[in-house]
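The instructor's notes for this session suggest beginning with a concrete chain rather than abstract definitions. Hand out the sequence below and ask the class to guess, before any prediction is shown, which regions might be ordered.
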Amino acid sequence: MSVKRTSEPASFTGRRILVTRAAEQTSALNDALVKLGAIPVVVPTIAIIPPPSYAELDKAIEDLKCIDYLLLTSANAVEAFFDRLAALGLDASALDHMQTVVVGPKSASALSARGVTADLVPEDFRAEGVVELLRDKVFGKRLLYPQAALARDLIPTELRTAGAEVIAPIAYASKVPDDAAGKLHCAIAEGLDLLTFTASSTVKNFVKLLSANDLALARQVPVASIGPLTSKTARELGFNVAVEPASSTLDDLLEAIESFFVKANDQTRTSL
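After discussion, reveal the predicted structure:
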């Protein structure tokens, strides 16, 4: 994860920033915040778990020779798909005949780590971007879309309307971490300067985990959101979204957070 510098580290010094991503995904954001002098308060509000059954995904993998496009819309999807591919005795060479599509740089990087270079990446790093990228390419084609249990149905619906056959097995699910409620209570009691959310599910779970009093306190803390859908969820649940990057990547999110604190520091100095 590379970060463009926009200010001196002083803008971040001592800032307590809540990180709510799944535990296995916190390191990049956590490490970047530490380097900038912030204090990351890591309390995942989501945990990635296996789906109730691999039957549909296994059947899809067995039929890979019939697939024209493989759609992987998160790093979690990449990991879940390739882990299952290996479990069935296959490797990346099984994908040589198809086009691989990812949602953005993070999933492209995860795919590259598995030995595969993404063929297509949308300009808009969201499901909407994937649909726009593929809409005119997939008539009569078969697409495999390993998805999260709670994924929106936008991609299957829109691409089926465009004439594609979309196979969308559940590749992974999620749950609320068992120890999150107590950790969040302590984090809020000790004070936070910013809440970060990188998916709507992290916001929804955050709210479920809090008492009424803690939720009231948390709603007074500004929010940094990864993108429009997460921001919409946060606002609907009563939060003040103060930071949203133009592009939904961690690099851009961190740069937007830094700009937010630079502005806050400038306003403080002006008022003195």
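Then share the key points. Residues 266 and 272 are 10 Å apart (CA to CA). Residues 1-8, 268-272 have pLDDT under 50 and may be disordered.
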